[in-house]
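#struct-pred

JT: dropping the chains for the assembly here, can someone run the whole complex?
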Amino acid sequence: MWPRETLLYHPMQLAFGLAIWILWFIVKYGALALFCEQAPPPIEQGAFTWINAALMVGSVAVTALLLFWANNCWRAARSGNNDADSEINAFIAVLGAGINLLGAVVTLSQGLMSLLLPPCL
Amino acid sequence: MNTNNETRKAEAALHDEFLKVWGNPRGWRALTIVNHTTVGIRFMITGGIFFLIGGLLAMLMRTQLALPEQEIIEPKLYDQLFTMHGTVMMFLFAVPVLEGLAMYLIPKMIGARDLVFPRLSAFGYWCYLFGSLILMSSLVLGIAPAAGWFMYTPLTNDVYSPGPNVDFWLLGVTFIEISAVSAGIELTVSILRTRTSGMALLHMPLFCWYILIMALMIVFGFPPLILGSILLELERAAGMPFFDVARGGDPILWQHLFWLFGHPEVYIIFLPAAGIVSTLLPVFSRQPIVGYRWIVLAIISTGFISFGLWVHHMFTIGIPQLAQAFFSMASMLVAIPTGIQLFAWLATLWTGRPVYHVPMLWLVGFLFIFMIGGLTGVMLALVPFNWQVHDTHFVVAHLHYVMVGGMLFPLIAGLYYWLPHFSGRMPSDKLARWGFWMTFVGFNTTFLVMHLTGLLGMPRRVYTYPAGLGWELPNSVSSMGGFIMAMGISMVLLDIVLHFRFGRPAGANPWQADTLEWATDTPPQPYNFISLPDCPMRHPMWDSPDLQATIADGRHGLSEIDHGRRETWGSDPVSGAIREIIHLPGNSWLPFFSALALSGLCISLLIRTYSMALIAVIASLVLLLRWSWKNGAFLEADSDSAAKSGYPQLHSRTFDGPGLWGMVVTLLADGALFLSILFGWLYLRIVAPNWQAPETVPLAWQPLLISGVLLTIATFWHHFIVRRLREGRDDHLQGQLWSIAVVGLVHCGVLIWTWSASSLLATQTAHDAVISVILMYQLFHSGLAVIMTALQAMRVAYGYVDKGAPYEIAVVKPWWLYTTAVYWLSFLTVILLPIAWRSA
Amino acid sequence: MMPSLTLPSLIITLSLLSGCSGPQSILNPAGPSALAVSRLWWGMFGFSVAVLLAVMALWIYAMRRNPRSLTEAQADRINRNWIIGGGLVLPIVGIVALLSFGIPMGYRMLPLPVAGQQALRIDVIGHQWWWEVRYPDTDIVLINELHLPAGTPVDIHVTSSDVIHSFWVPRLAGKLDMVPGRTNVLRIEADAPGQFLGKCAEFCGVGHAHMMLEIEVHTPEDFESWLETYEYE
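RK: done, full complex below.
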């Protein structure tokens, strides 16, 4: 197992949060296309369909996950020692916090759209 | 006095020694040059010429549109003009020029002597040049592509666009994209692995961050279009119906593939330009950039988000509005990273003490124009507004504000800024100001009014328009502005040409800049630096102003040259700590002739002479294999002259050299291509209106399973060999490599047999066509894995590869892994998924 | 120096705006969808001009001002305020404002079921380079002309027989692409009788520039009688 700190300081953090967002976006977009093709809900339901609900719940879950990681990164960045390595670590962890946070913002704001519009029209 | 003279003499002697190893040949042999400075300048000059050609095409269009119902240019020609204007500006000017600038600057900024794969830089240039010439020849012959730079199907298929016009575009642009992707790979690896000692990620000049993200975006963004072009060319030439509705394809698939590339492309162009702004502003504000980490955050997030908004080019094709809203949201959120950068620049000016030089003028022009482009961009992201103005002149105005503001203005600012670096001379002040104001006024006159033209309902891509719709006045204003802008650009050009002759000498570091590229000679020597300094800081030239002198004295690292090798540091991607010495290859004919062979392939496909194409393929293969043969453990790099004591070893003695990084980044691009194929497969399956899937999967799964197992065995075996090499054991290495190649060959054989025994009819349905493409893709990868492994076995026989120099075998390993992963992923989606689908 | 040059171009633009009333003009709406978009445009235009002028003014002031010397902490605070204020707050406020207008507006433009009545259906098929207009349940087939009743929501079902075209009547509503193999539905409505112009908006080959559609909007009663007489003929 990797120690938690190593993960939070890993340069992968520079891409992780937004990569998760992209993956979720692909899943969301694909699922929506699939369901609209296979079993479109009646138009009269408007935005109150179970596919909208599922997309919203998924978005909130991904957002929560990303916020959790952002918080971890942020705290890791704050807790560094003062050796040469920890300057780099802190740099990566702070950026990681920013990327995770931004990923959360984008995920949530896209998710909110599914409260407003009918899925397949 | 005397000591001074002696140091100078020693310096000159060292310089001569370096030049013997690094010098550029003249005459015909100049075609062999691989040095990044020369290649970068070649890219920029060639791109500049295409910019002028593209501008000329625009002038012709503006002449035609100046008045209503003119017949100066007939529609057939006009369609060629706008298609080629877009294509030239995007593919032949914007991307190559910025790549050229990056190639020129990056090694100098990170304290390296050359890019990490010098022959690849040269190869990229030749591919770009030959591809562009092929494409431009169509314009001269009057058979240029005429279906718009976006090449929407079905207008571009062989029914509605017979003749070679579209083929020129598909083949030429793909050829040019090879160059872009190779530059992307090279820049990524160079920035990550060849920074000078101690330059950690957080010390990198911001320009390098911008270029790193741009390079990675090229790596992920270009493959979808490469795939799309291949598929469309297959449809045109071989009748495989990927985009034909009647046979189960879908024209919308093309749009997805095109814009999956097309939107990131905008940011691929914008990011390096923003990098120029972030480099120049702090220098002219005389203080470090404000919010370094904020800007890095903005760059990375721009890179990612730009891949999630391609559908905003397709808001009017009838996608459900909820799906559109996702993309609309993402398109608007891009304003956040852009806003962060804008205000970081503003803050830098605010707390700095700005000085005024010509580049600053272009930066202010950039801000104004780009702001307008950005604001109309946010408007266009709003779906209802987009439905009205999409495909009108409003969008034409918007995209020119974004492109000219976001790319051309910063580029010219950068050009003026680095002009003393290119030539050692300063530009004139007066002519430069005239050039700026003419361009600025001309540009705004042309395009500010064009927003209105669009709002008055004038669509794009019309060669003429009737009088009486209110479009006459704005169009003639636009045409006038266009000519003012053309004059401005020619003044800038004149200024630059004249400065080579009349500019006053610049001296060292004329702008008092902070980054390492100003520590080279101006103009720079091919080796950049005699010695490579430690650089654990963001502003080396501000922190130690005598750096140029101490570097030239040879007082820093790696200043030995008596071994005759071109060397630069290989360092840790995060901390910049030195890991190895990278031995760079010297000048070579191989890049030139490989590109020539490939352009032969391109031409023979264009004229559909497949026997000639076969010859060209074989020629390219032989040349490329020869290239890989003259690689890695160089003959000159015999072990006893390996390295001075205290120095790390040569990269060919390691397992983790730049070649491995190059391979992995290449596979990322390759993976993006494969994912695009899978996307196409699933997309057609779900939404193609007439998707036709046969009752049973047309391939026998049992032999496929056997073939896959064989491939997996070969991969594991190869993995095992690398592990033993790491343990320092190389007994039976040659025999094992041969055996792996044989296992791989059997795997290919089984796959080919299964294919030929199947009932696939690639020209009948899109279903069978996509499966055929996946099979071709797999065979290409498996075949190459076999060839590379056989080549390694031969190199073991020659004694180039062993436990002392295990580098190359480690480079091949990811290819095997990737090939196997692709195999099983394809098996899953092509064989298993449909079965599950049907039983569900 | 900047504002002195932007001003003339703004004046030129504004004087041109007096001519927004062209027969193809988005800014001269004659139906609910087009009206909504034109209002949206004016709102966004005002907001954008304000943002542009404010940022330009700040930028030019920043270049000219004579900064007092700051401690590092003071400079940091100023810098952070700029980045957070301009880079985060400004775009987010702008986006929220824009979407709170835009999303409901887009929703209303959808071909939703109309309470109490059936939207009239008309099929339009794109060809290189002409329009085929069909009225379902009748035998009427028109070429390059379209007749509509005023004040009634109409669903235009668009498709194409060859390449991609795009159906667009700027004064009535936004555009919708006509894609071979698919049928898209565009809801349009004209406020009052009159004549309008439609134009193919997606590049469709050599004849693209001349692919025009003439639209005649009648009162509902006239439309009914037009339908009958036409069918009778």
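JT: nice. The radius of gyration of chain C is 24 Å. Chain C has four helices and ten strands.
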